[in-house]
Description:
It is a single chain. It is built from 19 helices and ten strands. It is α+β, with helices and mostly antiparallel strands. Helix 9 crosses helix 17, helix 11 packs antiparallel against helix 12 and helix 15 packs antiparallel against helix 16. The two termini are 41 Å apart.
Amino acid sequence: MENITKEKTNITRGGEFIIKETDPQNIFTPEDFTEEQIMMKQAVSDFIEKEVWPHKERFEKKDYKLTEDVMRKAGELGFLGVSVPEEYGGLGMGFVSTMLVCEYISGCTGSLSTAFGAHTGIGTMPIVLYGTEEQKKKYVPKLASGEHFGSYCLTEPTAGSDANSGKTKAVLSNDGKYYSISGQKMWISNAGFANIFIVFARIEDDKNITGFIVPNDPENGITLGEEENKLGIHSSSTRQVFFNNTKVPVENMLSERGNGFKIAMNSLNVGRIKLAAACLDAQKRVTKLGVQYANEREQFKTKIIDFEAIKEKIAQMATDSYVGESACYRASKDIEDRINIRHKSGNSFQDAELKGVEEYVIECSILKVAVSEDCQNIADEGIQIFGGMGFSADTPMESAWRDSRISRIYEGTNEINRMLSVGMLIKKAMKGHLDLIGPATEVADELLGIPSFDIPDLSKLFSQEKIIVKNLKKVFLMLAGAGIKKFGDKLEKHQQILMAVSDILIEIYMVESALLRTEKNCLRFGEKSQKEQIAMTQLYLYQAVDIVHSKGKEAIVSFSEGDEQKGLLMGLKRFTKYYEFPNVIKLRNIIAEKLKEENDYCF
Length: 603
């Protein structure tokens, strides 16, 4: 195992949350933002309120030039270079700060969110992390300032989720000075105004693709298709890009020959957690607008926010937003801390950044799935609160719903990410990076013993909730152990079982993150100040237990039978037990009343 893992630290390694307990004092929450981060958050929010929100209607009418202009202004303010090192014209801020900027610049419209994410992430960082010193000095400063814009050309008609199957070719010239690239790329964000393309092509019959930095020069065999007609993100430029014997100097190869697939996968890891962040402010905005409308709209001589049917929706929207935010910033600080540990141990900037994110690939996939699906559900409920008006393009709910839909496809579909989260966890265990088999064996042994019927002391805050979360982890370990025992290395072929188990893993990470955040804030601010946050945590846990039980049962009855099945079902029942059920309607009403009073998303 690597030397850096021997350093004493309170940081949980990637995936270890499923086998270890975490002290709430050791996690990062939005309440821990530094003064600098709060100032950055305010600066981005002010920019959006001034430059974007007043022009929301133009973004829905395919005003691509507006998106480009706003991006250029964002560059002038330094927002495009937050994660770029200072020596290449950026601000050199940490991972949490990059998440924060991504969140607040993305919440108003998916068009800007996509342009920003494509440029700052997959359009710039591959050069920062894989480029030579000459490449970084030549291209990165202009990308960081917004003088130039970047785009990422990976997807092809026959290469989507299977990114390494692309057919675009790169042929070395006879004199060995340049590669001639020919092929077709599709769904390319920012293509209409990009100056630099990161292009992936295959050299000869190489097993893996190779990355290239390709300036956008129409006279060099580069042509663009028409703007795509899309369900949402209307002002995000999305075109096909055609390369016809495009000459690219050999010094523009990105990293090494055949390293393109690795570049693409590592770019996606970062993109997944950043995409989750990009959904957060969107969720809060929709919740805020839903609350404000419900506080104004009257039916049957009553404000609709006073109807319990509406309170249920508002409470759920706020709860999902709070939980998603808790999980995103927990993971982002873990990544930042791991990057810093690697820096201190002598790793290069490149290796520290790449390995820091790669360590938490499981959490990145979890967040991508959970937050993108919550974002869509929140937008859907926002439409419902507005009723008939919500279906109108004259209100912001309609565009929020359309824009949110792409998030479940971006950065690897949610189905791919579900299977990745469990698959990578098992691979980590097989490599000895975490002990999954030991805890799974302990759970199997526990199932053979006589269960305790004693009722534990539940007088302290979250006593029951902590026991339940610990037991939910046992459900996952029980199923993972049984699945590995039955299928071995063929488990990955049983996709429906993997996705069911993945949903359990997702719920555990999300609810534990909220629980840890709320407990930490209760300890420092007092329980009274966290009344609604306690209610949201308890509400989410109640729902998570139902999901774990349902998905666990689905998996058990699908891969077991006879006595084994009976034993697993008994274990599932034992580990999803409540000692005292919460009053779910009361919890929702507590949350909704606070939102009604503040007339805002206030958490």
